Fold this sequence. Notes:
Keywords: Glycoprotein, Signal
Largest sheet: 4 strands, mixed
Signal peptide: 1-23
Distance between the termini: 84 Å
Strand content: 5-15%
Family: Belongs to the GILT family.
CATH class: Alpha Beta
Protein name: Gamma-interferon-responsive lysosomal thiol protein-like isoform X1
Pfam family, one: GILT
Amino acid sequence: MVSPKLPITIILVLLFFTYEFEGSSYSSRSQIDNAMVPLPPIDYEKVNLSIYYESLCQSCAIFIVKNLDEIFNNELINIVNLQLVPWANSHLNKTNNSISCQNGPDECDLNSLESCALNVWPDVNIHYGLIFCFEFLAIDGKNKMWKNCFNQLGLPLVPFIDCFNSGNGTKLGEKYINETAKLFPLHSFVPWVVVNDQPIEKDYANFTYYVCKAYKGVSIPAACNVSLNAIEK
Length: 233
């Protein structure tokens, strides 16, 4: 007599081999799929993009709000080390360590605020968002409404206010002024856009082209193909 347990044993064995086969196939497919996903750029491959500017300069504000914002929408930020440098046209009086700004005291205040944004939130996605909001208001002459930006972005006000009220934003200004003074060649206007230590001068609105041309990695954003093809045709 055939044992009633035999068919169950056979079924279990078949199920085991079916599971192992499908699991192996899934694992193989996963490895293939993962191999097809481009690796993120290595830090040393990224292009250094530095923007030297003044906070109440209209051309600077328009560039930051209209042009620079695109790198967060077209994935260019993935291949870029973005550095924002306010106080670019300000003057440091070394006798009393006071700073005068090209467009007056209001600009010094906004430069201080933006320095605090850079200092309190090193993450480029956060400090850029806040500076974008400040500059958006500056375009319409509403820069004194800067506190509204914190509600819009859901950022805590306290650490930022501590930085500003302590004068740390102005102290940071000295660092940015000294950094700007080391530019070679020296900047002659703002915004002064530098790609891998090379200024692109009056062609700053086309910075995407220069970034893409400088990038030597393999994970090339689609925006680079569009930009390079458009200009090099």
